[in-house]
Amino acid sequence: AKLVDRPAADMPPLLRGLLIGAAHQIEYSRAAPEVCVHLAVDAARALGLSRATGFVNAVLRRFVRERAALLAKIDADVAARHAYPEWLALQLEAAWPEHWQTILQASNEHPPMTLRVASAAAREQYVAELAASGREGEIIKDFPEAVLLRHSAPVAALPGFAEGRVSVQDAGAQLAALLLDARAGDRVLDACAAPGGKSAHILQRQPKVDLLAVDDDSARLALVNATFSRIGAQSSSARTRLVDLTQSDALADEGLFDRILVDAPCSATGVIRRHPDIKLLRRSEDVEGFARLQRRILERCFARLAPGGRLVYSTCSILPAENERMLGDFLEATPAARVLPWPSGLALPTGAISQKTGVQLLPGSGSASTDGFYYACLGRLEDA
Predict the structure, then answer these.
(1) pLDDT bracket for residue 57 (50, 70, 90)
(2) What residues make up the domain containing 69?
């Protein structure tokens, strides 16, 4: 839009794509800029855009002349420099005025490969096993079962992966099972469970539970079953079920649960460094849509929470509309609900931000360089 008088959105998509591709080639290829312009004009003819060849030539030659000034202007805009949509950058600036630029930078960096060993007691032994296989692992002190792999590796090459002794799971995601704090004999519900990493963690921390993992997508539920098979979960303690938790009668035939994990569908703004296409796919209106969906799922699940039970709400979002704000509205409308403290002995990870209702991890935060996650623990007021 800086090189032409009309908005880029008004151009035919094919022409717009050609100009973008040619500008990228001018900036990043080893070919001379003049050659790139010539090739773009030829491409316009080949694409049936012969009437636009003069336009393509003029725009790209102007880009060659003015690109230093244009790129400097773009670089001065923080959102543009980090290739973030303006609406999302503005929301992050409003939510995290002291952290938003760090968030943008961290979200463009390569994420670490973090492992979770099946038993905290075996963590040091597993690091030694990695070393013996020529790989370097580092213990992360804030997370009892986490090991940071210095250099990423195919999961099949990890010692013990096939046998379920180790799983790939971001350190921030490992908080879910720790906060749930399931005890022997508990009935546990993992809502929105696919692909099953958090369910597996719950079972490996406490095998003597009755766990139900649900999801509304049969293909994704198959991933949960595959995860259970890999870790050797017993069918007597773990089962799956296809359930739409937005329905009013969802799980009405299942009775009450002592522990419920609601890892709700969200904008996934905390995991952009793993899924950069989120920046292109999300729209500002999506956020409120997710918040409404999260509220419905939370209401259904809270109705299934037994007296004395604990519900952990989590998202991989870093937007308050899906976290603190949504939960604040839920608590205001649900007199029976209250905020529970973290389990005894579980410390707040380095870099975590404590809020009125929950705790927020931001992308790249702490010694574990976690993804962005939000957690809150809820119980019933009559249990106080």
Answers:
(1) very high
(2) 8-76
